């Protein structure tokens, strides 16, 4: 299977790391990006072929992954349109936040074989999760192909309604950043309490890994697992009370809503009719 990536930045690199020489040989992955350093790194690491502008190997691809910034998508789609027409019905996979399938299809000259995906960066180590929705022009085989690609880098969750992808973006697309933010806060507190940087890192990361695994493997709700840590009048109670007083949970819920709103807003702004 030949896969072309338009855009070879952070998220493309995470996906390529999971796919190259696993689902398909590195040499069957072609990456287009104006940034020569990014291309050199990807070529060296994974053996992918590269180009600084859309070229013939893109037309030869079975799957074209659009991994540029949402703000670049319209221009890139216009550049890509003649190559898609020349090709044999490739599957287009867009990972851009906000960009709606109908807008992308219009920019591609009415091309409809588009799957809209929202992966996340743990794809880099095969532990990603991707929300996906197929546009009406996607056949069963292409839908299965999209699923194979994203399952090579983690789990997939199919949606029946494209509007829900803004929620996926807010929860799991952006989600790793919230987790890293929480880990940073734990590490800062560890340092303030006199632990070394290394000790704080080890304790915070092992706690996140352990708690996430416990929650994943447990049949019980996460709230019950939380209660089991919280002894009456004890240390966890003191911490959680402080978080409640500080409005931490409400702030997190509000933040996730802000991300979802931003996704919709980007769709409105960037997809506005020509
Ligand atoms: N980062 C994440 O966690 C996630 C990102 N996404 C989505 O993935 C997409 C890419 O994000 P991310 O990887 O973070 O962004 P990056 O900025 O890291 O990557 C985008 C890349 O596209 C390149 N580029 C710009 N214009 C073109 C062009 N005309 N043709 C080919 N390549 C071009 C950029 O080059 P240059 O830097 O020189 O402009 C850059 O290397 C976005 O749409 C984002 O919404 C989705 C899920 C998660
Ligand atoms: O921040 C963003 O817009 C992208 C989409 C999800 C994660 N990063």
TrEMBL record:
- Superkingdom field: Bacteria
Q: Which UniProt keywords apply?
A: Amino-acid biosynthesis, Cytoplasm, NADP, Oxidoreductase, Proline biosynthesis
Entry annotated with the keyword Cytoplasm: yes
Q: Which residues form the Pyrroline-5-carboxylate reductase dimerisation domain?
A: 162-266
Is Cytoplasm among this UniProt entry's keywords?
Answer: yes
Q: In which pathway does it act?
A: Amino-acid biosynthesis; L-proline biosynthesis; L-proline from L-glutamate 5-semialdehyde: step 1/1
Q: Where is the Pyrroline-5-carboxylate reductase catalytic N-terminal domain?
A: 2-98
GO MF, one annotated term: pyrroline-5-carboxylate reductase activity
State the reactions this protein catalyses: L-proline + NADP(+) = (S)-1-pyrroline-5-carboxylate + NADPH + 2 H(+); L-proline + NAD(+) = (S)-1-pyrroline-5-carboxylate + NADH + 2 H(+)
* Pfam families given in the database record: F420_oxidored, P5CR_dimer
The UniProt entry, under InterPro entries, shows:
6-PGluconate_DH-like_C_sf (IPR008927), NAD(P)-bd_dom_sf (IPR036291), P5C_Rdtase_cat_N (IPR028939), P5CR-like_CS (IPR053790), P5CR_dimer (IPR029036), Pyrroline-COOH_reductase (IPR000304)
What broad class of enzyme is this? oxidoreductase
User: What Enzyme Commission number does this protein have?
Assistant: 1.5.1.2
Q: Where in the cell is it found?
A: Cytoplasm
HAMAP family given in the database record = P5C_reductase
Family that this chain belongs to = Belongs to the pyrroline-5-carboxylate reductase family.
Job of this protein: Catalyzes the reduction of 1-pyrroline-5-carboxylate (PCA) to L-proline.
* NCBIfam families, per database record: proC
Its recorded name reads Pyrroline-5-carboxylate reductase
């Amino acid at each position: 299977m030949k896969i072309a990536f338009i855009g070879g930045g952070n998220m493309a690199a995470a996906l390529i790391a999971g796919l190259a020489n696993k689902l398909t040989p590195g040499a069957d992955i072609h990456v287009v990006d104006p940034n020569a350093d990014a291309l050199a790194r990807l070529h060296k690491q994974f053996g992918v072929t590269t180009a600084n502008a859309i070229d013939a190997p893109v037309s030869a691809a079975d799957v074209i992954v659009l991994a540029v910034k949402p703000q670049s998508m319209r221009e890139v789609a216009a550049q890509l349109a003649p190559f898609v027409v020349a090709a044999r019905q490739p599957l287009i996979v867009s990972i851009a936040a906000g960009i709606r399938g109908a807008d992308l299809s219009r920019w591609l000259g009415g091309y409809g074989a588009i799957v809209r995906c929202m992966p996340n960066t743990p794809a880099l180590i095969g532990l990603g999760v991707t929300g996906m929705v197929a546009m009406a022009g996607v056949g069963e085989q292409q839908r299965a192909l999209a699923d194979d690609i994203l399952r090579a880098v983690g789990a997939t969750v199919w949606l029946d309604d494209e509007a829900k992808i803004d929620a996926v973006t807010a929860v799991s697309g952006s989600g790793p950043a919230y987790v890293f933010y929480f880990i940073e806060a734990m590490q800062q507190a560890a340092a303030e309490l006199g632990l070394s940087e290394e000790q704080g890192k080890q304790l915070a990361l092992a706690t996140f890994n352990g708690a996430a695994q416990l929650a994943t493997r447990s049949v019980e709700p996460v709230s019950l697992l939380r209660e089991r840590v919280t002894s009456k009048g004890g240390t966890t109670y003191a911490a959680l009370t402080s978080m409640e007083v500080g409005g931490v949970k409400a702030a997190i819920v509000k933040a996730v809503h802000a991300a979802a709103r931003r996704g919709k807003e980007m769709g409105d702004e960037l997809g506005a009719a020509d």
